[in-house]
C-alpha cells in the first residue's frame, strides 16, 4: 500500500526501470531555441540554437538577429566555455576546478542528464539496473517522487508524471542553494517524447535567477557539432568577472 491508501501498480524497482526506459534513446539532438532569462525581475529574451552529442558536448548558441551568433556556451567533459563574440572575450573553466561540482559529486554527466531529461546518479556516466537500490521511490496518485539515499553535500529529488516521464529535477545544497529544472510541453521525437520547454530556477545566490528554454524544430539526425577553438584575438576573462557582469545586468 502507498501512503494514499492505494495499491502500487509497480514495485519501486520496476517503476525506476520504466522511468529509465522513457529517457531519450538518441545520441544527438538539435533544435531552434528561444532563451528567456529573468535576473531579479529583469527579463531578456534571445533566439538561438541548442545542440547536444551524448557523452561529448552541449552547445547553446545565441543568435538574436539573422542567425548571426553573438555568444556561445559550451559544456564538454573537461570544461565550460563561454564566448562573447561582440566584445571578443571568453571564459574557460576546467570542470575539475569547479569545487561546488566536485564536492557534490557532480560532473559533466550530471549536467548532461539535466539537458537530456534523464534520471542520474552523481559521479556515474549513466544509471543502470544495478544502481536502482541507490534510490527511494514514493508513488502517489500515479506520480512519484524519487530521491537519492546517500549524497555528499547535495540532495537530489526527481518527480515523474503518470507516464513515468521525468518532469522535475531539484538539487539542494547546504539548505540554502537550490537548482530547480522543470520539463514541460512534451512533443513526439524519434518515437519517444521530449520536453519542448525547460524552466530553470537558481535560488540562494542573492538575486533570483530564472531561465526558460523553448525548443522548436527538434531533430536527432545529421547533426554536426564540434568543440570550439577560440581565436587568439579573444581576451580571456575570469569566472568572477563574468559573474559580476551578469549580476550587474
Which spans have pLDDT < 50 for at least 5 consecutive residues?
A: 1-7
Strand content: over 45%
Report, as a whole number of angstroms, the end-to-end distance: 51 Å
Radius of gyration: 19 Å
Mean pLDDT across the residues is: 87
Largest sheet: 14 strands, mixed
The H/E string reads HEEEEEEHHEEEEEEEEH
Shape: globular
Helix and strand composition category: mainly beta
Helix residue percentage: 10-25%
Looking at how many chains there are and whether they match, the oligomeric state comes to single chain
Main β-sheet, spatial strand arrangement: 7-8-9-10-11-12-13-1-2-3-4-5-6-14
Q: What do these coordinates show?
A:
With 249 residues, this protein is mostly beta strands. Helix content is 13%, strand content 45%. The chain contains 4 helices and 14 strands. The protein has helices spanning 12-21, 99-102, 108-116, 239-247; strands spanning 28-39, 42-53, 57-62, 71-76, 79-84, 89-94, 135-140, 143-148, 154-160, 166-173, 177-189, 192-203, 209-219, 235-236. The protein has a 14-stranded mixed beta sheet with strand order 7-8-9-10-11-12-13-1-2-3-4-5-6-14, covered by helices on one side. A hairpin with a 5-residue loop joins strand 12 and strand 13 (209-219). The longest helix is centred in the N-terminal third of the chain and has 10 residues, at 12-21. The chain is globular and about 60 Å long. The model is unreliable at 1-7 (pLDDT under 50).
